[in-house]
Amino acid sequence: MTKDEFYIRRCIELAQKALGNTYPNPLVGSVIVHNDKIIGEGFHKRAGEPHAEINAINSIKEADKHLIPQSTIYVSLEPCAHFGKTPPCALKIVELGFKKVVIGAIDSHEKVNGKGKKIIADAGIEVVSGILEDDCRELNKRFFTFHEKKRPFIILKWAESADGFLDKDFKPTPISNSLSRQFVHQMRSEEHAILVGKNTALRDNPSLTVREIEGRNPIRILIDFKLEVPESFHIYNEESETVVFNSIKNSEENHLKFIKIEKENSPAQILLKLYQLQIQSVIIEGGRFTLQQFIDENLWDEAMIFQNPKLNLENGTKAPHFNFKPEKTENLRDCKVFFFRNSKA
């Protein structure tokens, strides 16, 4: 591992601390190094708050501030070049006169996309980019998918028995264990939104919130064309913002947003609307019909299947037809988790 890779790896570690909290902004970490010693580090904690580079600069002790012109600033994603809720980091780097800037990945957002790097280089500061680029892009897979494919990053998720059923006799049935439930709630806190169809909402009356761990609740998304789910159900409570795709009305009421779409070709319409709402990632939790629609149209990036190898349900809702090889498998006590990645999305 080169010196540059070592410090960019640290940037990635720092950035990961804010997973789930920066939407619609990317995850970014920054490290400031003088003579092989870290004198400052920081990460972007929340949208609207200072960016990683500014937090790293502010973390430098007063006695070390004079070292900045002889220091290298490392950042996992290209410094921003535009005025948003905060001023451009590229201009701050130029103003302070760093000796060198090392960038993990170039930011494909149309307002940046090489402009930050150019501002720094035009000021006569040495700039290197593309260090651990794949790892830096993986860190921000949601952000890059959103800006490059104009849709959210999509994760499919379900739990099934050893014989491939989602429930017993079409009634809600516990399949996974308490450890896997914690894992799922952690996942919910990290993604921007979570989506279910009408049948799942009616049958399970899920809250789709984070309860097993500390974390933020995702935006809830319901597909309910005829608005059949009663407003007394958990999905309509005030614990989280809720978007309802339907064929009856467009309206906004407090934390509820109703969006009218056509039933035909609904997955593509939903993804377009979610893109317009700036939603960067979505977990599709069910049910079978909804999951199968996204699978059949190849609209998914990752999938997780939780399987109880000791449970046979014999009759009920069949798990989606999903003929892919897992990238890896993990055991959560007596529950197996299969992880898939879609290389053709």
Largest sheet: 10 strands, mixed
Q: Which ranges are low-confidence, i.e. pLDDT below 50, for 5 or more consecutive residues?
A: none
- In the sheet with the most strands, the strands line up as 10-11-9-8-7-12-6-13-15-14
DSSP summary: helix tally: 10
- Along the chain, the helix and strand elements come as HEEHEHEHEHHEHEHEEEEHEHEEE
Shape: elongated
- Strand-residue fraction? 15-25%
Number of strands: 15
Summarize model confidence as the mean pLDDT: 94
Radius of gyration (Å): 22 Å
What proportion of the residues is helical, as a percent range?
25-40%
Structural class call reads alpha/beta
Straight-line distance between termini: 31 Å
Structure in words:
With 345 residues, this protein is an alpha/beta fold. 27% of the residues lie in helices and 25% in strands. The chain has helices spanning 3-16, 52-58, 89-96, 115-122, 133-139, 141-149, 178-190, 198-204, 266-276, 288-296; strands spanning 29-34, 37-43, 72-77, 100-105, 126-128, 153-161, 193-197, 219-223, 242-246, 251-253, 256-260, 281-286, 302-308, 328-332, 335-341. Strands 10-11-9-8-7-12-6-13-15-14 form a ten-stranded mixed beta sheet, sandwiched between helices. Strands 2-1-3-4-5 form a five-stranded mixed beta sheet, with helices on both faces. Strand 4 (100-105), helix 4 and strand 5 form a beta-alpha-beta unit. Helix 3 runs parallel beside helix 4 (115-122). The two termini are 31 Å apart. The model has no long low-confidence stretch (mean pLDDT 94).
